Prior knowledge:
By secondary structure, this protein is an all-alpha fold. The protein has helices at residues 2-11, 17-43. The protein has one domain (2-43). The protein is built from 2 helices and no strands.
Amino acid sequence: MxxxxxxxxxxxxxxxxKSFLMLIHFCxxxxxxxxxxxxxxxxx
Length: 44
């Protein structure tokens, strides 16, 4: 996920900064959701 984000940052260095930031936000939020689900199942 993070490697993909870094590659996209290099490609879209000057253009599409807003969409890139939204993509990072989406990736981070989905990672957080996955971690929360994993913690929930490990507790149960």
